[in-house]
Amino acid sequence: MRTPHSPQRPSGAMLNNMAQTVTDDTESLNRYFQDLKKFEQNLTQGPLAEVLKSAPVQRLKCISFIPEFCLSEIQLLSYSRYEHSIGVAYLAASCAETLGLNARERDVLILAGIIHDIGHTPLSHATEQFLLETKRRYHHAQGLIVAETLKGKVNTALDPTIDSAIDLLQVSKSNKLSPLIRGVFSADNLDGILRSCLIFDLPIFDPSEVLSGIRMVNERVAFADSGDLIYRERVIQLTRQIYQGKLRSNYVLASEAMLVRALQLACGEDPSIVDGLQEWGDNFLIESLSSHIQSSELIALLQAKKPFVALVDIYPELAHRVLMQGKQTRRTDFEARRGLEQQVADKLEIDRQDVILYYTARKTIQTRPAQLELPLGDSTGAPGAENAPLLTPIDALHSKHVLRGDAVHIFVKPFLSQPSVSL
After folding, report:
1. At what angle do helices 128-135 and 139-150 cross, to 10 degrees?
2. What per-residue confidence (pLDDT) applies to 258?
3. Confidence at residue 3, expressed as pLDDT on a 0 to 100 scale
4. 7, 66, 137, 167: most buried, per Cβ within 10 A?
5. So what's the pLDDT on residue 342?
6. β-strand partners of 364
7. Is pTM beyond 0.90 here?
């Protein structure tokens, strides 16, 4: 029986229906997933097997890539963070082969792909704001801490490779291989966007094909502009559509806000839940929140697909006034946040617990107009260089997280009848 975290491999017919404008090559997608399975089998027999079999990595099998718990409709497809990590490692290995990297660089890229998500809390990004507000870090930084604990627990000969993978994953550091792990055209984003497209019934693409034309020029990974620019632009559009659209709908945001509130309430009864988030999977967390009186009602509403509603949709003037004040308030100033929630509760004559002021970090896609005016294999000023095609660095387009509470939302429990509100 398939669990919420088990993969459902896309059939040829299903892929045909979804492959609208990006590609109609369903065979390449089927081959991609088949290659992932073979790649995983090879990993279990290779030098990185101990890391793959470690508890932090195996826990990802119990964490949804995109939790159906927070989506308005039942999804036909479901993936785990573990499956995504295998996909990232596979694409990273393919890049290493395309670029002609040495065996050690290849292992570092593969290992970075395997461990890049081990800092995720259950239900993935749906609970990440709670991690930020309790630990003051996102899953990226949390993952680096967890990755450090692998040293000494696996073959000590892997410690230098683990250190290099950690360096590669640090946002504050950058080297020639960083764009293969972080950014719009990274292994992480391409595998993630593909899975998101399959889940949301959007146009699909073959990640391997997108990365097939990369080259290393002047110690930078680059695309030749003679390649399929329209194809790459569609990947960028899909990235925006998913991160700034599908995963930022009021339904998703309200569900996330309710989960964070449920965690806050449950931790008030049992503070040990905070530490358990680094050991649990989705189901264990849901069971735990359902067992606490204060958080159980919120979980029941989510399970019934009845999330809170955006205040701006029912009382826009009140919402606008409170949200303007919310933007002046730091997300960590919980007393001020409770005061704003109380303002709304008083106006609507409801309990403050039925109001949630929720902060998120925007994920924006920015363009850096950078090109390398250098032909492959030539040097600056070499004969013929002026006629060579331009090369675009793979990190010329990148995603940027704004980690402060720059986006504020307010949700309220659905009313059985609309109250009369005097503004």
Report:
1. 70
2. 97
3. 40
4. 66
5. 97
6. 400
7. no
- pLDDT at site 420: 57
Residues 113 and 91: beta-carbon distance below 8 Å: yes
Distance set, CA 219 to CA 119, 190, 364 (Å): 30, 22, 27
pLDDT at 364: 59
Within 13 Å of residue 268, how many CA atoms lie on the same side as its CB? 9
Please say whether the beta carbons of 421 and 343 come within 8 A. Answer: no
Tokens (6 digits) for 178 = 């960083």
Question: Which residues, in sequence order, are bridge partners of residue 81?
Answer: none
Q: Kindly give, in sequence order, each residue whose CB lies less than 8 Å from that of residue 346, ignoring residues fewer than 6 positions away.
A: none
Residues (pLDDT < 70) of the chain are: 1-25, 224-228, 362-393, 395-406, 416-423
The Cα–Cα gap between 219 and 377 comes to 12
Distance CA 404, CA 128 (A): 13
Supply 171's token pair.
């946002």
Separation CA 89–CA 176 (nearest Å)? 17
Segment 261-269 long-range contacts (CB within 8 Å, at least 24 positions apart) = 261/295, 261/298, 261/353, 261/356, 262/289, 262/295, 262/298, 262/299, 263/127, 263/130, 263/289, 263/295, 264/130, 265/292, 265/294, 265/295, 265/298, 266/292, 266/294, 266/295, 267/134, 268/294, 269/293, 269/294
Contacts of 325 (CB under 8 A, 6+ apart): 340
Q: What integer pLDDT is reported at residue 210 of this predicted model?
A: 87
Bridge partners (DSSP) listed for residue 397 = 367
* pLDDT at site 391: 61
- The pLDDT of residue 146 is 95
Give the model's pLDDT for residue 106. Answer: 97
Burial of 374 (0-12, 13-18, 19+ CB in 10 A): buried
